Amino acid sequence: MGLDVSTFEDDALLLKIIDLATQVTTSFTGEYDWPLNLDGSINMEEHTKTHRRRRFFATLPSGGSYEARFVKDGQTHWPLHVKQEYEDSGHDCPDFNSFTVVVPDMEPEYCDELIRNGDISDGAENWWATMGGVAVIDESASGQGFAITSEYRTAEWMGPSQYFDSRCMTVNASYKVSAKVKLIDKTTKDLINCNPHDGSCPRLTTKLQSGAWEDTNESCIGIGGKDAYWHSSFEWNTFEYEFTISQVVADAGSVLMYPEYPNLDALMVFDDVSVHRI
Ligand SMILES: [Ca+2]
């Protein structure tokens, strides 16, 4: 059995598996290969890629019934999403009778806000990138404090992103998405405009993935950004969209929100990102 969780979890996260027949409990530590630069520092561009995972592997006798839970610092813990896969799918051996990952309860207001560190006050904490890295930049001069961007975008779909907690993906729950965004030239740092009528402005998308290792079962659902929201005279423009969680989103193994933007000579800078329940 293999379980994938996000790279923002650390070595303190344990997977405890109970054999329900014998009540024997075994704890497993996760595996994560830190990507390093030549000088030994962490390569943040690699580390923050959304498709990197901390992985837990457990070899269990077939036919048994098992219950698994994540524990961190002695407390039951949920690492935003857990992607589950039989490591040797397609084998000829009998499967487990059951393997259940226990999803811990939440406080009633827990799902009111899906974005963590949306004002970037905690630096890059909880920010991934669909590639291109995450970089915190000082926007104090424009009154925003810290903001976040991806400095090494080489494709339209690369940019800062966050996973939603899978426990909050409840069918028919509605959310308001809001974010401030500014566009600056990578080289000159001058402000850049875009035309919202021809698709050249940033837009937000959700990426849904199943539990498969190779993410072959992947789909995307747009949130907003294709209609006119851009005012060329503003330094910061504001996304404001509403979306309702559909059955396919609720059923996904993981749900990621990320931006798309065709101009690769520009930086998308985000701040005050929020996905708030309405
Ligand atoms: Ca800020």
How would you describe the overall organization of this protein?
This protein has 278 residues and is mostly beta strands. The protein folds into 2 domains: 2-101, no CATH class; 110-277, Galactose-binding domain-like (Jelly Rolls, Sandwich), CATH 2.60.120.260. The chain contains 2 helices and 18 strands. The protein has helices at 44-47, 247-251, and strands spanning 2-5, 13-19, 24-29, 54-57, 65-72, 75-77, 83-85, 98-101, 128-129, 135-138, 146-149, 160-163, 174-185, 203-209, 218-224, 237-244, 254-260, 266-277. The strands form 4 sheets. Strands 2, 3, 5, 6 and 8 form a 5-stranded mixed sheet that branches. A 5-stranded antiparallel sheet has the order 9-12-17-14-15, with no helix packed on it. The longest helix is centred in the last third of the chain and has 5 residues, at 247-251. Calcium ion binds next to strand 11. Calcium ion is lined by residues 119-120, 144-147, 271.
Q: Which helices and strands appear, and what pairs or packs with what?
A:
Blueprint: E1 2-5, E2 13-19, E3 24-29, H1 44-47, E4 54-57, E5 65-72, E6 75-77, E7 83-85, E8 98-101, E9 128-129, E10 135-138, E11 146-149, E12 160-163, E13 174-185, E14 203-209, E15 218-224, E16 237-244, H2 247-251, E17 254-260, E18 266-277
Parallel strand pairs: 5-8
Antiparallel strand pairs: 1-4, 1-7, 2-3, 2-5, 5-6, 9-12, 10-11, 11-18, 12-17, 13-16, 13-18, 14-15, 14-17
This protein binds calcium ion.
